[in-house]
Amino acid sequence: MESALYYVTIALGLSIVVNLVLKRFGISPIIGYILTGVTVAYGFDLRHMADSHTLGMIAEFGVVFLMFTIGLEVSLQRLSTMKKDVFFNGVFQVVISAVIFFAIAYGVLGISLSTALIVSMALSLSSTAVVLTYLKSTKEIARPYGQKATGILIFQDIAVIPILILIGFLSSNGKDIADVLLHTTLSAVVIVGLLFIVGKRVMTWLLHFSSSSEVDELFMGSVLVIVVASSLLASYAGFTYSLGAFVAGMIIAETRYHHKVESDIAPFKDLLLGTFFVTVGMKIDLALFGTHFAEILVLLVAILALKAVVIFSIVRIHSQRKIAFKTAVALSQVGEFSFAIFALAENHNLIPVELAQMLVLVVVLSIIITPFILTHLSAISGYFFKDVSVTETFAMLPGRKNHVIVCGYGVVGKFVAKALRAEGVDYVVADNSYKHVQEALRDHQEVYFGDMSKMAILDKLCTKDSVSVIITLDNLDKKRLICESILRYAPDVKLVVKVVSLEEKRALRGLPISITIDGKKEVAARLVSEALYCEL
After folding, report:
1. Can you give the pLDDT of all 536 residues of the chain as single tens digits?
2. Using CA atoms, how far apart are residues 132 and 138, in angstroms rounded to an integer?
């Protein structure tokens, strides 16, 4: 165990350097982790470490946290607002793609039934990590094709759960199919029911208790307890750890805590998921890549083309050609979750090792080229479709614009919110204190529970599209941290900060803050003004 953790530390340290280099070329961090795994495996002769039980458990927790964060995005409310994109485009894309890949694998290539099932469903998935990261960072998620792509990706993430359950079903050698199906269905109903009925109350109480304590470590610990407990419950019932984590994420997505949980859990998820991709890289056989280079290249082109045609045909039913084309090209790659599917299937002897290796190489190549395709997607679509659609150019997601963000709902924050409301200004309040959030709710304010020093919260609040951010906090260290994060995330936003002393003003002097309001100075000016103009 110690040796496994030692090499994980080396690999993660090396991955930081690799990702810093790759970032300059717009390459996904996933590729950096995979290349790190290859480097560690061949540079230190550690390919055998990829099968380490300890390393495997750490990597599996990365997948667990990935599914938990996906669950946070898949709230029931969000599903209801994207029904057509999720349940029409998403369902038909996954089903039709899987059927075509299965027909080719089983009927043409002669692959066994169970292997063809697993391979076909894995290839029908696209890369949530790469595509959504690009769409969010470039604001293309606000475009019609971004909405279509997001809807399809949400259903693909949901579809991972039955795929993982199917692998468990196919690995149950010698058991009666009817008994396995009955046991699986009953267990799934019981687990989901327990988590949604009993677990929802427990999770809400735990998050309420930990957030009201005002101790960040306690809140983070509560989230980790929820993820681990839900995963263990699902595992105890015979399912994968990921199922429990996914359902737990969906439950928390219905509460007011989901933005804070999402931002707090991100570093753990990224670190553990990075470990998973490092192990994927350690399993890559470079000799196999050289030997079967032509076959891998043909497979890659065929998969990209088939998926693009299927997605274009489905999205085109309710959308313009250009939107359908951009959606199809953006989602034509194979997703990172196929690594987990191939690894799990290989562990259960459901897929030959050499085939799994070839498919992993195909997936790696498809993910490598995806950022370059997305960067030039508009130029590619413009080459095929000369017409410019008004809806394609200007249609945006229903989001906030030209609003004011009030950071902190203390004494000053209350007066600021009251004044903005009196002036009829569109504003939102954000605070990391549960007590202040409760007070804002009682005052019928639109308030969000989260730390504005986290990029995820700034993104949720549409900070880049806001008129200004007013910071009313008293804690100097927290105030400076939030100012630095906002200026990094949205350097053009107007930043108005309350200070209470010359020392605070000096401490913030190095930051390009638009306006600083000195409380004591303003009070003194008002006192003089009132004294000079009062009637004796």
Report:
1. 555 556 666 666 777 777 777 777 766 677 788 788 888 878 777 666 655 666 667 767 777 877 787 778 766 666 777 788 888 999 999 999 999 999 999 888 888 888 898 999 999 999 887 787 778 767 677 677 888 898 898 888 778 777 877 777 777 665 565 666 666 667 767 777 777 777 788 888 888 888 887 777 888 888 888 888 888 887 777 666 777 888 888 888 878 787 788 778 877 777 777 777 777 777 777 888 888 899 999 999 999 999 999 999 999 998 888 889 999 999 999 987 888 788 778 777 888 888 888 898 898 888 888 888 888 887 888 788 764 443 343 333 346 788 999 999 988 999 999 999 888 888 999 998 878 888 888 888 888 888 888 887 888 888 888 999 999 988 888 888 898 889 888 888 999 988 887 777 777 877 777 777 776 777 777 677 767 765 54
2. 10
Rounded to two decimals, the pTM is: 0.67
Amino acid 244 reads: G
Query: Which two three-digit tokens encode residue 42?
Result: 């061949």
512 contacts: CB under 8 Å, gap ≥ 6:
487, 491
**Contact (Cβ atoms closer than 8 angstroms) between residue 472 and residue 413:** yes
Structure token pair of residue 97: 């793609």
